[in-house]
Every structure is written in C-alpha cells, then in structure tokens.
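Q&A log
Question type: sequence-to-structure
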Amino acid sequence: THGKKLLIQFAEQNNIPFELCGKYIVARDDRQIKKLKSLYENGLSVGLEEIQWLSEDELRKTELRHTSGINAIWVPSAGVISVKSYTKKLLDKVLKFGGRLLTETECKEIKLDQNKVTVCCQNNLSIEGDLLVNASGINATQLLSLMPKLAKNYSTKLGMGSYCFYNDEVPFNSLIYPVPEEHGLGIHITRSLDSDTKLGPNFSWAKSEDTDLNENIIEDFYHDLFGLWKNIKKDSISSGFAGFRPKLHINNELYKDFLILQPEEHNNLAIHLLGIESPGLSASLSIGKEIAQRFRQ
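Response status: OK
Response body:
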C-alpha cells in the first residue's frame, strides 16, 4: 500500500497519466472462494482497509453481472498508469541530477575492494563508484554471479507471459482478475488509458528467450476467459505480445517473493534486486526508498 501511495503521488506531481478505475478479483467455485478469502484477509492485514467482500447478490448489482463469479473482492484504489510516461520521467530525473544512461553496454566483470566498486564493460570501459545497485531484471542473478561467490546459489528461471488484445466493446470499466494461480495473477482483463483492452498474461516456463506466441493462443485465451466472462467473443481476440518474469530460485528451490539482497561478502557495497516481477512497478518507488535508506546507514 505504501508503494502505491508513493506512485500515485509521483504521478500527480509529474503530470503522468493514470486512472484509479478499481479492480475486482472474481471467484467462480468453492475452491477459488477459499483462496479469495485468504487474499481478502491478507489485504486487510497489510492495511488495505478499503477493500470490500462481495456476495453473489452484491456482485450481480455491479459490472460483474457479465461474469460467472459467485464471490469477489473489490479494490477501489487499483488502477492503470502510463508506464512509458512514468519510466521516461524517472530517466529525466536521473539525468537532471547528473546521472548517465549507457545503452548497449554489457557488463563483463565487477571488482570490489573495501570501499569501491568497479564495473568493467566492453570496449575497455570501466565505471567506478561507491555503491552498486543490481536492478538488471531477468539478468540480475547473472550479474550477481560476476561478483564474489555467496554461500547460497541464486539463479533465475524465466516464466513467459503472453498477452492478447480484445477488439470489441467490453462491458467492464474496472480491471477484472481471476483468483491468482500458482505462478501468476492469471489471465485478466485490463483496460488501458487509451481504451484498448488487454487480456493476459498466461504462464508457461520458458525454454528459451524466444517470445514467439503459441499458435493456439487465441483458442487458449478464449477457453480460459470464457469461464470468467460469459459473452466473450473468440473472433474479437487477436494475438499480442509476450514477455518474461524472473522466477528466483535459491539453491534450486523456487522463492515466491521479491528479494533485496545486500551480502556481507560484497562488503555491503552492492544491493541486488532479485525476482522482481509483478507488482514490481507499483512497488518501484518504495523499493527505491528502501535502497536509499540502506545506503545512508
């Protein structure tokens, strides 16, 4: 909740387009209701006091009448933001304060001494600094492996998430989510600020870094969403794009959370952000604040 508040405040102060359209998480059977109740209780425990539990009668009075839901959670403070505008503004602020952006610059080696970090890149480029933040996404554990070895083994396995678009009218003004699956949030219905409707993502373990979409993706999405959205039209679904999620493994065991790692073996000169996936965007400013506080200590 803290991260979301920071993000909204930042968007308001910097004229970044966003909209708090709210989110429903919808259960369709008794097994999902059990999971949904656990989510609801967890939300209350972390300070989401505005969330509401909806009975079947209550949800039928909302836009969820177009779904097959029997219970739902309503989160009024959820929304959408222009990711492009947000990340561009962050870069602008970095450059304003004297930072630099080096694109197409591969890190080959990282050297540490007692109070200095040296990042050695291609073309004999070296960058020295007092501190290192490893925020390299799906490559974070690979970058970690260039530094002194740790007692535990950290590795990343890639989960692939594919998206489709819906090219027709949608009866929802809010975000519509199923009860989350084991490795993700499930295929959900997301409206964007420009009125496009995005479906997804699904989940599969990636066998390579190839982002070509499954040839059956439209059929798969239709069957998956038909149980949630009663009147979805298969002919209105078009294939979209795919991306990767970094699934962190520690000693070959899946770690089901973010990890902000500051190893003593690295002389406390480096912080590694591992396994940062959804809701990493919502939490991004909060993560940045945590890193800044650690480096001030």
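Response note: Helices lie at 2-13, 30-45, 56-59, 83-96, 140-144, 217-226, 280-296.
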